[in-house]
Amino acid sequence: MSFDLDAYLARVRLAEKPASDVEGLAAVQRAHRLAIPFENLDVRLGRGIRIDGDSVFDKLVTARRGGYCFEQNRLFGDALAALGFAARPLLARVWLGASDTPGRTHTLLLVTIDGQEWIADAGFGGSYSPPMPLVDGATAEAPDGARFRLTTDRRGWVLLRDGAAAATDGRGDGGAGWTEQYSFTLEEVAPIDLVMANHWTATAPGTRFVDHVVVSIALPHGFAALTDRAYRRYAAGEDKQGMIDDPRVYRMRLSLMFGIDLAAADMARLDLF
Q1: Could you give the CA distance from residue 173 to residue 168 in angstroms, rounded to a whole number?
Q2: Can you tell me the mean pLDDT for 28-53?
Q3: At the topology level of CATH, where does 5-269 sit?
Q4: Are 108 and 121 in contact (CB under 8 A)?
Q5: Interacting residues of 134 by C-beta distance below 8 A, sequence separation 6+
Q6: What is the C-alpha separation between 171 and 212, in angstroms, rounded?
Q7: Which residues are the active-site residues?
Q8: Taking CA atoms, which of 42, 70, 152, 212 is between 20 and 30 Å from 229?
C-alpha cells in the first residue's frame, strides 16, 4: 500500500512532520489519541473489522471514524514507518477486570530508536499511556497525572498504572494503587496472528467488544468514555458522569465529544435504548 502521510498528519492535527526520534514518537502517539477515538461500533453493527492497511486508512482517516486496537495500531504503525521509524507489532493480554488468564486480544508497537526499544500504543482504550523505554522499572507520567510502570515477571513484560479511576474506561480498580493493564512478550508477531486475534476479539460471544458499545478518547488533560449508555468525562481534575437516556443525546455526544457522526438507523441497530 502507499501511505498518504499528509492526510494522516492532517487527521491527527499535526502541522509539521515530526522527527523520527523519541520526541517525535511521543508527539505522533499523543496527537493520534487526541484526534482518533477508540470505538467498536462496527462490531456491534455486524460489519466486521478489517485490519489491512488500506481498509484501516479508509475508515480512520478518510471516513474520520475510530476503531479499536488492531485498527488503531495498524494505522499508527504504518504512519511511523512512513515517518522513518522502525516498529513492529506485539500481542498482549489485558488484565483489567480479568478473573482468569485472558487471551492475547490487544496489540501494541515495539519501536527501536538509536538502539533503545520503546513501547508505543495508540490503541489502548482503557486509559492513555505515553511511550515508555523497554526497561524493567521504567516509569512515565501521562498528561492526566496517572503514572505508569513497566515490570517483568513470569508472564513477560507488565504495564501497570496508578492514577485517577475517572481517567479510565471504568475497568479495574484505578485510583487504588498500581493496577495491571496488560502483559506482553517480545516474540515476533506474524500478520496471521493479528488476523486471528482480531477475528476472535470481534466475534467471540460473551466478550467485551461483542456484548458492549465502547467508545473513548484522550483529552488534553483527561479522558472521556462511553460504555453502552454510561458516560464519563474527566478533565483537569473534574469528573462528570451519568447515564444517557435519549438516543438523540447519545448521537450528539458521539459527534461533539468523540467526532463520530452516526446515522440514526445505525443508532437504532446498536439496540441501546
Answers
A1: 10
A2: 97
A3: Arylamine N-acetyltransferase fold (3.30.2140)
A4: yes
A5: 110, 116, 117, 118, 119, 150, 157
A6: 13
A7: 69, 106, 121
A8: 70
